[in-house]
Amino acid sequence: QVELVESGGGLAQPGGSLTLSCAASESLASFKTIGWYRQVPGNQRVSVARIFRGSPSYTDSVKGRFTISRDNAKNTLYLQMNSLKPEDTAVYYCAAGVRYVYQAHEADYWGQGTQVTVSS
Length: 120
Prior knowledge:
Elements: E1 4-7, E2 10-12, E3 18-24, E4 33-39, E5 46-52, E6 55-58, E7 66-71, E8 76-81, E9 90-97, E10 109-110, E11 114-118
Parallel strand pairs: 2-11
Antiparallel strand pairs: 1-3, 3-8, 4-5, 4-9, 5-6, 7-8, 9-10, 9-11
C-alpha cells in the first residue's frame, strides 16, 4: 500500500511564505506523475503543480509564486509557496499517479491533506 503524508500547512499573512512537504512510503521514481492539488469547500479539487516525467508544470494562478520540487533520496515532494494571497486558502493534497495525471479523479494515491490559510 502507498502512503502519502503532508505537513507544513498553517496560517500565513498575505505576501508571506510556506513550504509544504509530502513524505511517501515508496520511491518517487515509482510514479510517472506526482503533484499538489487544492480544494476549497463547495468547489472541485483542482491541480496546482505537477511533475510529469521530471518536467514541472503549474496552474496559471500560481506561476512565478510557487515552486514544486522533489528529493528522491528522501522520498519527499515539496511545494514552496511565496507571495501568498488570500485566494490561496485551501486544503492542499499531494497525489501520485502511475501515468499522466491532470484532473484529480485520475490520480491513484492521495494524502490526507494539510490546511493552508492566508489571512491578515
